[in-house]
Amino acid sequence: LLGLAVASAMVLTTSVAQAKCDPGEMVIKFSHVTNTDKHPKGIAATLLEKRVNEEMNGKACMEVFPNSTLYDDNKVLEAMLNGDVQLAAPSLSKFEKFTKKFRIFDLPFVFEDVDAVDRFQNSEDGEKLKNSMTRRGLKGLAFWHNGMKQFSANKPLIKPEDAKGLKFRVQASDVLVAQIEQLGASPQKMSFKEVYGGLQTKVIDGQSNTWSNIYGKKFFEVQDGTTETNHGILDYLLVTSSKWWDGLPDDVRTQLATIIKEVTEARNAESTKVNNENKANVIKAGGEVRTLTPEQRQAWVDAMKPVWKKFEGDIGEDLMNAALKANQ
Ligand code: LMR
Q1: Residue located nearest, by CA, to atom 3 of ligand 1
Q2: DSSP state of 147
Q3: What is the ipTM of this complex?
Q4: Is the Cβ atom of 146 under 6 angstroms away from ligand 1?
Q5: pLDDT digits (tens, 9 = 90+) for 150-189
Q6: Which among 4, 112, 290, 308 is least surrounded, fewest beta carbons within 10 Å?
């Protein structure tokens, strides 16, 4: 009987582990933290998985683990360097330990919209940024868009002074910390999966994120409202370990790179549409969305922009200018 139980347990484990992957296929684990539907990253990751599994069948097999089910963003890069996971797409705010150049993406009010970000990322400077961490063992494969960030809180935010004294969750980035301090509010670094609970239990009063994340993780349910500030960009780097990537057979690496490029172009072109749909979803679900007049928004620009001075040295004048030029 025991033998039978062991045998059936083995069958079960094998069939679970091989739900998608055939014996002999190289397994590519992709860990991320957001939901899968109605989300720029979630949709792109699912599409990448589908294409790899169809077109590279027999050679490679991709398994996506969304919703922080495998790793948090604060653990995933370490796990990648240890060879435990092959792909991730953390937000650009989460590479602080590896490069200070990515701080350009966290400064408030640098990019007017996602199109400007796209132009900058696809420039020579963007290419250099993608490859800036190879010495640290990380290879940037592609920039993936999410979109512009909005502020939400447990009280209406119309003037920058409304944020004074509130506690805001920030991603693990010193620029984002400084930005909240600039508003006279307190920053609290916290992982993405803890934000809903933090807002619900009032450990934090507010947060800043894209419409896709605000809708996807239902932050609007536990906030007074969201103010359309569009104060910064939240984008991703699809990243892998240089060691793993360089060790791939040439044909596998080439085919994978082509699929990644095509998925990136197709999904990046849709990211703004997905965010606009999620803004509408928040409103449909009863979330309060506040828009600002140009004068009201300018007050936020004036209040937050002084933070640039603190980080210009890390980023460098040339890169700052190149980013600003992308708005034209
Ligand atoms: C966050 O931590 O708020 C975001 O980076 C989550 C994500 O991956 O969009």
Answers
A1: 192
A2: E
A3: 0.99
A4: yes
A5: 999 999 999 999 999 999 999 999 999 999 999 999 999 9
A6: 4
